[in-house]
Automatic annotation (TrEMBL):
Lineage of origin: Eukaryota, Fungi, Dikarya, Ascomycota, Pezizomycotina
Membrane topology label: Multi-pass membrane protein
Domain Glycosyltransferase 2-like: start-end pairs: 246-454
Pfam family, one: Glyco_trans_2_3
Compartments, record wording: Membrane
Keyword Endoplasmic reticulum: no
PANTHER family documented for this protein: CELLULOSE SYNTHASE CATALYTIC SUBUNIT A [UDP-FORMING]
Organism: Talaromyces stipitatus (strain ATCC 10500 / CBS 375.48 / QM 6759 / NRRL 1006)
One Gene Ontology cellular component: membrane
Protein name in UniProt: Glycosyltransferase 2-like domain-containing protein
InterPro entries registered for this protein in UniProt: Glyco_trans_2-like (IPR001173), Glycosyltr_2/OpgH_subfam (IPR050321), Nucleotide-diphossugar_trans (IPR029044)
Transmembrane helix found in the keyword field: yes
Record-level Gene Ontology MF annotations: glycosyltransferase activity
Length: 512
């Protein structure tokens, strides 16, 4: 009888004990899971911190080490280095002023073409029914551009002057989370303009390259030309027609790169300087280099591609500046790219130093990636059936090697001057003269020549400036050019340091 009672008690207690055991196991699992999450969070935080700060310490070490070397070097050795830096700077200044002079011819040709079309009441040489079919590709990272995307799309649909039976706007966007009601509104807009618009949420996309590659691999189109735009761009209403004239005039042209103008140049000091910089780059440097070295570059936005070439080359999503990589691959492929300043588009510059810094660091790291991958174009054989001239090879050498090495030459000169200031601080005008020129007459000639080249480049830029660039920003740009040059060089070093430390974060530029 007692045994039977014990069995019954044990039978009653077993489920309770089982539940308690299960609860203990569950608590242990939860505890272990929380510990794992805490450890993973700590590891990720430390790893991110190391990745963020490694480039800074690499650049800091570079400056400290270089300055220390010059402080302990003899005067003769320092003079040798000084001459190397000054001669290289003279070469860069010479190349820049030659680019400016050659850009004058491009500017005059573009102005004559503009005046001719304007006199004919904006009737272009090529009839509308002979224009190529055109796809406008707008790439957008929606969380960053949700405030501007609808406005840009409506502008493209309503303001661009192009035959509607030959024109389609394609929005290819990605977003890590749903953004409503915006996404529904975008698809509703596509339904409203069904014949001229396509909206695609690219599955699994994490980059601009993924969005463009989806267009190349998946989307069916009869467009002969595909134009790529970032979401913040306003193309001039006649810009597509200007680009099409280039394709119709020369059947060998594969890419037409237009001029990008900073729309918000008057927002603050930073945007005004970026505005001058963009006028100098897109209206002077790019067309000038194209005329001087006989090759052009796709610059990421406001670029028109033959669709067949774009679909063949696509974009490499492993590159931070997939646009420059694709431009250099196109060059290696034997494609012909030209610059046309009448193909104008307006974009937004970063309005804060933080946004500017992140954007330029990404560009800098992307450029060193592309330079390392494609510098072989200087010496490698041309593609079968194509010919890469010595002039083009020298232009690529200057673009990919000299430009990258100039960051070190500028900062090394800065370290050299800093070392002299530390060890022999100039106490009078004579000492300052010796510090700057080392008392060599040739230094004056090199300095004067570089200064004249710089003034000449800015004079050309002044005459090519956009309507958003006020005249007085040019002398301000000139007065602040030296610190801007040093900042550019430091950003270049950070880009190299990021590449060495395998920095992989992507920081999108805020748009509003």
């Amino acid at each position: 009888m007692e045994k039977q009672v014990d069995v019954e008690v044990n039978a009653l207690q077993t489920p309770v004990q089982t539940n308690r055991s299960s609860e203990r196991r569950s608590n242990v699992k939860s505890g272990l899971k929380k510990v794992y999450q805490d450890v993973f969070w700590a590891f990720t935080t430390v790893s991110d911190g190391v990745q963020d700060w490694t480039p800074f310490f690499l650049v800091l070490s570079y400056f400290v080490f270089s300055t220390t070397i010059y402080m302990n070097a003899t005067s003769g050795i320092n003079e040798v280095f000084w001459f190397i830096y000054l001669m290289t700077n003279t070469y860069i200044a010479t190349a820049t002023v030659i680019e400016s002079i050659t850009a004058l011819g491009n500017f005059q040709d573009s102005k004559r073409a503009l005046d001719k079309v304007a006199k004919k009441n904006w009737v272009f040489p090529t009839a509308d029914n002979n224009l190529p079919r055109l796809d406008i590709i707008v790439v957008a990272y929606l969380p960053n551009e949700q405030d501007i995307v609808m406005d840009r799309l409506k502008y493209l649909l309503e303001e661009i002057v192009y035959p509607r039976d030959r024109y389609r706007v394609n929005l290819l966007y990605n977003t890590p989370y749903a953004i409503e009601p915006l996404e529904s509104d975008l698809f509703a807009l596509a339904d409203e303009y069904a014949k001229n618009m396509r909206v695609v949420k690219v599955p699994g996309s994490k980059s601009k390259a993924d969005n463009i590659n989806y267009y190349c691999n998946v989307i069916q189109t009869d467009a002969q030309i595909s134009a790529i735009f970032d979401c913040d761009h306003y193309p001039h209403p006649y810009a597509p027609k200007w680009a099409m004239e280039q394709f119709c005039k020369d059947k060998e042209i594969d890419i037409v790169q237009g001029r990008c103008v900073v729309l918000n140049a008057n927002d603050n000091f930073l945007t005004s300087m970026i505005g001058v910089e963009f006028d100098k780059i897109y209206a002077v440097s790019h067309p000038g280099r194209s005329a001087m070295f006989h090759f052009g570059l796709f610059c990421g936005s406001n670029g028109y591609w033959r669709t067949s070439l774009l679909r063949e080359l696509k974009m490499d999503d492993s590159m931070l500046t997939e646009d420059i990589d694709s431009a250099l691959r196109a060059f290696g492929h034997g494609a012909k790219a030209v610059h046309d300043i009448n193909v104008t588009s307006f974009e937004l510059a970063p309005v804060t130093m933080s946004a500017f810094w992140k954007q330029r660091l990404r560009w800098s790291q992307g450029w060193i990636q592309a330079s390392m991958r494609h510098v072989h174009l200087v010496w490698s054989r041309s593609r079968e059936g194509k010919h890469r001239t010595m002039r083009q090879r020298f232009g690529i050498f200057s673009l990919l090697f000299v430009r990258e090495i100039s960051y070190y030459l500028i900062t090394q000169y800065l370290c050299l001057v800093l070392s002299v200031v530390i060890t022999e601080f100039p106490k009078n005008g004579h000492d300052l003269y010796k510090l700057v020129f080392f008392q060599y007459p040739i230094a004056w000639w090199l300095f004067i020549f570089s200064l004249l080249a710089f003034v000449g480049t800015l004079w050309v830029t002044f005459h090519f400036r956009s309507e958003f660039c006020r005249w007085y920003t040019i002398p301000i740009f000139a007065a602040t050019y030296l610190p801007q040059l040093v900042l550019t060089a430091v950003i270049g070093l950070f880009g190299h340091a990021r590449q060495v430390s395998k920095y992989i974060k992507w920081n999108p530029t805020p748009r509003n």
